[in-house]
Amino acid sequence: MSLRIAILIASDRSARGERADATGPALKAWVEEQGWVLTELAVLPDDYVTLRNWLMSRSDRGNVDVILTSGGTGVAPRDVTPEATRAVMDREVPGLAEAIRAASLSKTPHAMLSRGVAGIRKRTLIVNLPGSPKGALEAVQVIAPALPHAVELLQESPHAEAGHRL
């Protein structure tokens, strides 16, 4: 199944042009390696309203299956990506964020500081990833096996339940 993926990087410094964003290009390359379609890659400041509005507009268009966010999930005062994500979610999908934290914890104790969330708005799955290229790639690889099935379920595909047989 070919997924339609949008990537949102939350970074004040990259949005201002003070630092080149390395995470977006790394995620873009990984998405394309999966044979999925990248619909958009945006770099925005760590601003609650800006992030919330971007997530809402992309989800509401109906042409994106999964939005991967990176950055803004820590404990710093400007880390507001989870709050912006929660504000637009219809339903939470806690298992994805839990899986990311569990896998990340085996690599760094800083994983305990991640506040990333995952949820659904309409038929779009939104997942917060860590802000570093390495952390974001490791995290998306953890959840990648579940993404096509999640999208099938959100799209109410007749094939979605085929894997649920006893």
- Proportion of residues in helical segments: 40-55%
Describe the largest sheet: 6 strands, mixed
Task: State the CATH superfamily name.
Answer: MoaB/Mog-like domain
Which fold does the CATH topology refer to?
Molybdenum Cofactor Biosythetic Enzyme, Chain A
- The CATH C-level name is Alpha Beta
- Radius of gyration from CA coordinates: 15 Å
Mean pLDDT level: 95
CATH architecture: 3-Layer(aba) Sandwich
Q: Write down the secondary-structure element order.
A: EHHEHEHEHEEHH
Provide a descriptive summary of the structure in words.
The protein has helices at residues 12-15, 23-33, 48-61, 81-88, 94-105, 133-143, 147-154, and strands at 4-10, 37-44, 66-70, 91-92, 118-121, 124-129. It is an alpha/beta fold. The protein has one domain (4-154): Molybdenum Cofactor Biosythetic Enzyme, Chain A. It has a 6-stranded mixed sheet with strand order 2-1-3-6-5-4, sandwiched between helices. Strand 5 (118-121) and strand 6 (124-129) form a beta hairpin.
Main attributes of the structure:
166 residues, alpha/beta, Molybdenum Cofactor Biosythetic Enzyme, Chain A, 6-stranded mixed sheet, 7 helices, 6 strands, 41% helix, globular
What is the topological layout?
Layout (H helix, E strand, L loop, with lengths): L3 E7 L1 H4 L7 H11 L3 E8 L3 H14 L4 E5 L10 H8 L2 E2 L1 H12 L12 E4 L2 E6 L3 H11 L3 H8 L12
Parallel strand pairs: 1-2, 1-3, 3-6
Antiparallel strand pairs: 4-5, 5-6
Helix pairs in contact: 2-6, 3-4, 5-6
